[in-house]
Design goal:
One of its GO terms (molecular function) is metalloendopeptidase activity. One of its GO terms (biological process) is proteolysis. This is Peptidase M3A/M3B catalytic domain-containing protein. There is one protein chain. The chain has 163 residues and is mainly alpha-helical. It contains seven helices and no strands.
């Protein structure tokens, strides 16, 4: 069994071999993708719990594996670890982009954000909602500039309309 795929608070470094990392990353990315798909395919109306909280808690296994791997890569790197980093880094970037550019996910976040004044959210929940929404808006703004070739002024107008 791959020790990276078991739940842990403290990484079981004595059990981890370099060969465990890539399969663990691949499995964790698939699992996180399924968690995001569950959010976007939900037939329930978007709510803080089924969208923002679910998004915040998605990919925890991937976060743990990434943390262990990249800390190890910084502290005790070797050729094998560097090779794995070269292989998994593009996969992690692609996954991150898939989430950040997920239109269905953004629509759900925007729906919750548009109701924020009626949701009686705690300060922490409000902060999380604002953070998630602004993260998506900022990414959309950057992509608008890159993909459309529009002027910064035009992009600023669209950006302000989204906020």
């Amino acid at each position: 069994m791959n020790p990276l795929l078991a739940k842990f608070d403290t990484a079981p470094f004595s059990q981890i071999e370099n060969e465990h990392f890539k399969p663990a990353f691949l499995q964790a990315i698939d699992d996180a993708r399924s968690e995001i798909d569950a959010i976007t395919s939900s037939t329930e109306n978007p709510s803080f719990q089924n969208t923002i909280e679910a998004l915040e808690f998605s990919g925890q296994q991937l976060d743990r594996i990434s943390s262990v791997f990249f800390n190890l890569n910084s502290a005790e790197t070797n050729e094998n670890i560097q090779k794995i980093a070269q292989e998994v880094s593009p996969l992690l970037s692609e996954f991150s982009n898939d989430i950040t550019l997920n239109e269905a996910l953004f629509k759900r976040i925007k729906s919750v954000y548009s109701q924020k004044d009626m949701l009686n959210l705690s300060v922490e929940q409000q902060t999380l909602l604002d953070k998630k929404y602004k993260q998506y808006i900022d990414t959309l703004y950057k992509n608008m500039l890159i993909e459309s070739g529009m002027s910064k002024w035009q992009a600023n107008l669209r950006y302000l309309a989204l906020r």
